[in-house]
Amino acid sequence: MALQPAPSSPELLPPVETELGQDPSAQLLRACLQGNAAAATASLAAGADANARDDSGWTALLRAADGGHGACVAALLAAGADPTLTSPWGWTPCTLQPGRVVRSASPRCWVQASTR
Fold first, then answer.
1. I need a surface site. Which of 44, 76, 77, 105 has the fewest CB within 10 A?
2. Number of domains composing the chain
3. What is the mean pLDDT of residues 28-34?
4. Is residue 15 situated within a structural domain?
5. How far apart are CA 60 and CA 26, in angstroms?
6. CA distance 103 to 15
């Protein structure tokens, strides 16, 4: 029997565009979890709070960094997302980089490291 992806896998979530009527900040959080930079940018343009937190206390920037979604990270930083906000465990976007942990005070450490 083949293993099935966990129910929380981003590919099993409904696309952001299908959730009509959802507030822009909720759309932004979903888009960043999925790595959908176009939907994230549209949500920000529709008035989403770049620093909104989900029910688990994670910001869109934390979700994007954790998922390795560099285009979402860049869009959020350009929109003024605060890279110093932490997860409930004290993680920052710079400590959530896929494949490496960066100890840096630079608010752009994730974007800089992801382009190397």
1. 105
2. 1
3. 95
4. no
5. 9
6. 34
Entry pTM: 0.70
Is 55 domain-assigned? yes
8 in any annotated domain: no
Q: Which two tokens stand for residue 50?
A: 């770049």
pLDDT digits (tens, 9 = 90+) for 49-65: 999 999 999 999 999 98
Cα separation values, 79 from 1, 7, 10, 67, 99, Å: 45, 31, 23, 19, 26
Q: What is the DSSP string of the chain?
A: -PPPPPTT-GGGSPPGGG-TT--HHHHHHHHHHHT-HHHHHHHHHTT--TT-B-TTS-BHHHHHHHHT-HHHHHHHHHTT--TT---TTS--GGG--TT-------TTHHHHHHT-
**Token pair belonging to 78:** 């350009």
CATH number of the domain within which 57 lies:
1.25.40.20
Nearest of 17, 51, 49, 54 to residue 33 by alpha carbon: 54
